[in-house]
Task: inverse folding
């Protein structure tokens, strides 16, 4: 008998039965863990092989993820009921009662799945956290719910479960927390896919063979999304084909990394071609069957947009006609390859080059799904969210486990990001993932922490080779250094906006392209206004016919315009011409391929300063008279740093200001 309980509704009276939706999600999970990369991830997280019987038990657990929808109050929504209830919390209560009551209609289901085994409790928590966060069990026991209709639905649900899983064995599941977290993430990913109506059309009365239908739809969905790339073929991992040029010393060193090495750190100077080195590492790992995805994490949105175009070209060269469309992993952007999407109601995305949904772009349509893309380029925070206690962290981590995680420009001065990235890497490598870190400014202490090595002495740190390629457990790979770039540094005993503006105007007046990087948005705005007050707004970066500055507090649409304007103003191949002034914050300091004739920067930590210097004389090209040699002016607090050692705070330097209690509570009084 088919249960009348519904699992999905639409606004037109359409319904998808609860048993059909449960089967859809279970079959997607089954298809996911059948993929080699996810099966390897499960084994790595478990600390050993996971039996087929244990996987089957996980599939059965996944089936019951929405069992709480049997609650009468939830079912009443189809008749206009307004009572709010968490079906996940209700599911906890329902199974708790089923385990205790001898005549409960779901008694057998609970017994077959949980077998009175206390070690199953973490899995029960994972099942009902499929919306991305833990739930509290409902205090309204199912036996107290009004009416008996839900009991008939529960009996039908039990019958469908028995038919779907007739050979369920009492296989023990791993007790490792990493495995349980990975299961929670794969279940949440399966629920997102299994709830997509384009893949799983509503079935008000599914037939007796619906499980077979659902399994075929699940396998089709993974192929369409790109999670299953086995039919797409492997890339041509030839560096020259990918790039069109011969590898540099840093890039050639990638060939010495064993495909079995799951972590590598490339330290080389800015402009040495680390990006192409990372892409070639991905190509080689993909060709060896070690990864089936790539997430390229960069520090800023501007860098992500610029890098996305380069990755699109490289991926086309690598995969040919089977190339996936790289996703631009910036929330709200909806960019896949060269196509741009627009969000409509009911979670629909319309793409500018197609009238129908393009399911291969599924991962681009929501930020939570970015890490499920075959190839994605985005900000590092999208990956870091997998290592924080935030909603859908498990899903992000599980989706990432199949991919090479590339983190560009890691360094040590930001302790907060360093700690999170180390946690991210532990989890990612613990799930069998691969990672590639790049930096021009990492430092010996941070490098040793990432490699899991003892902290070196000062002498050992100074003696470490640079540039070099580091792989845990293997000898360091020394790389021939590139061409030296001499930069003249001048300290300016002032951080005043008008002082900086005056010097920028003088340089731009001689035809130089001037890059000004300030530590805070407020300081950048002051300098920008000072240039205008001096009557030289014409020298400033122009967007839509008006002077503009670059920082992170603009709307997404405006940021895209600003990013393109900066790239045009400081393009590496731009011929010498009239001068200009580009003023910004940390959004311009790293990972960007922009080329300035002179740099004006606030004092900042040394590794950050080296990154800022990397935007200076980055390419060989004609320079204005007087700027043939690279020069940087470093603006410092007037009178030295002594006064910043206390509670003083100026332009990103010194101790953070203390907020008095009255100010902290101001919004409450």
Result:
């Amino acid at each position: 008998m088919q249960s009348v309980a519904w699992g999905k509704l639409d606004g037109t009276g359409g319904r998808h039965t609860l048993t059909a939706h449960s089967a859809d999600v279970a079959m997607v999970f089954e298809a996911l863990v059948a993929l080699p990369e996810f099966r390897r991830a499960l084994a790595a997280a478990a600390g050993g092989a996971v039996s087929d019987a244990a996987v089957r038990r996980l599939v059965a657990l996944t089936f019951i993820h929405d069992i709480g929808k049997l609650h009468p109050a939830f079912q009443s929504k189809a008749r206009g009921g307004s009572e709010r209830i968490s079906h996940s919390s209700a599911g906890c209560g329902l199974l708790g009662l089923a385990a205790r009551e001898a005549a409960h209609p779901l008694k057998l289901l609970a017994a077959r799945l949980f077998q009175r085994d206390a070690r199953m409790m973490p899995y029960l928590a994972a099942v009902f956290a499929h919306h991305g966060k833990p739930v509290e069990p409902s205090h309204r026991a199912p036996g107290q719910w009004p009416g008996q209709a839900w009991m008939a639905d529960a009996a039908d649900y039990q019958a469908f479960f028995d038919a779907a899983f007739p050979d369920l064995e009492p296989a023990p599941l791993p007790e490792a927390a990493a495995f349980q977290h990975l299961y929670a993430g794969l279940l949440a990913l399966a629920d997102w896919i299994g709830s997509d109506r384009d893949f799983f059309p509503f079935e008000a009365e599914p037939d007796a063979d619906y499980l077979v239908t659902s399994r075929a739809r699940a396998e089709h969905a993974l192929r369409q999304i790109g999670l299953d790339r086995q039919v797409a073929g492997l890339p041509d991992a030839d560096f020259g084909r990918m790039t069109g040029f011969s590898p540099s010393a840093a890039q050639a060193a990638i060939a010495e990394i064993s495909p079995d090495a799951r972590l590598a750190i490339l330290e080389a100077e800015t402009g040495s071609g680390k990006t192409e080195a990372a892409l070639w590492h991905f190509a080689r790992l993909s060709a060896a069957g070690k990864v089936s995805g790539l997430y390229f994490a960069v520090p800023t949105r501007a860098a992500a947009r610029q890098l996305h175009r380069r990755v699109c070209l490289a991926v086309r060269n690598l995969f040919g006609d089977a190339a996936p469309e790289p996703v631009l992993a910036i929330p709200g952007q909806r960019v896949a390859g060269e196509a741009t999407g627009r969000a409509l109601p009911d979670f629909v995305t319309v793409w500018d080059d197609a009238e129908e949904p393009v399911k291969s772009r599924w991962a681009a349509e929501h930020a939570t799904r970015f890490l499920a893309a075959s190839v994605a380029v985005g900000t590092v925070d999208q990956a870091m969210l997998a290592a924080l206690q935030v909603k859908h962290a498990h899903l992000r981590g599980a989706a990432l486990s199949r991919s090479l995680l590339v983190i560009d420009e890691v360094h040590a001065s930001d302790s907060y990001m360093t700690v999170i990235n180390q946690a991210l890497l532990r989890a990612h490598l613990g799930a069998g993932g691969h990672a590639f870190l790049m930096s021009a400014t990492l430092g010996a202490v941070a490098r040793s922490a990432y490699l899991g090595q003892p902290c070196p002495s000062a002498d050992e740190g100074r003696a470490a080779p640079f540039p070099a390629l580091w792989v845990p457990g293997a000898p360091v790979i020394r790389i021939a250094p590139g061409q030296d770039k001499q930069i003249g540094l001048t300290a300016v005993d002032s951080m005043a906006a008008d002082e900086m503006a005056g010097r920028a105007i003088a340089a731009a007046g001689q035809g130089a392209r001037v890059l000004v990087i300030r530590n805070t948005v407020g300081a950048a705005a002051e300098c920008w206004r000072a240039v205008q007050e001096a009557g030289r707004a014409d020298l400033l970066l122009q967007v839509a016919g008006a002077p503009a500055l670059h920082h992170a507090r603009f709307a997404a649409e405006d940021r895209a315009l600003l990013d393109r304007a900066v790239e045009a103003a400081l393009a590496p191949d731009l011929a010498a011409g009239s001068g200009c002034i580009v003023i910004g914050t940390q959004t311009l300091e790293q990972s960007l391929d922009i080329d300035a004739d002179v740099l004006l920067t606030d004092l900042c930590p040394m590794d950050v300063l080296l990154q800022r210097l990397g935007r200076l004389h980055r390419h060989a090209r004609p320079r204005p008279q007087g700027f043939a040699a690279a020069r940087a002016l470093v603006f410092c607090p007037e009178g030295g740093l002594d006064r910043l050692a206390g509670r003083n705070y100026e332009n990103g330097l010194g101790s953070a200001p203390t907020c008095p209690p009255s100010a902290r509570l101001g919004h409450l009084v």
Notes: The two ends are 61 Å apart (CA to CA). The first strand starts at residue 6 and ends at 9. Residues 508 and 579 are 4 Å apart (CA to CA). Confidence is low (pLDDT under 50) at residues 139-143, 659-669.
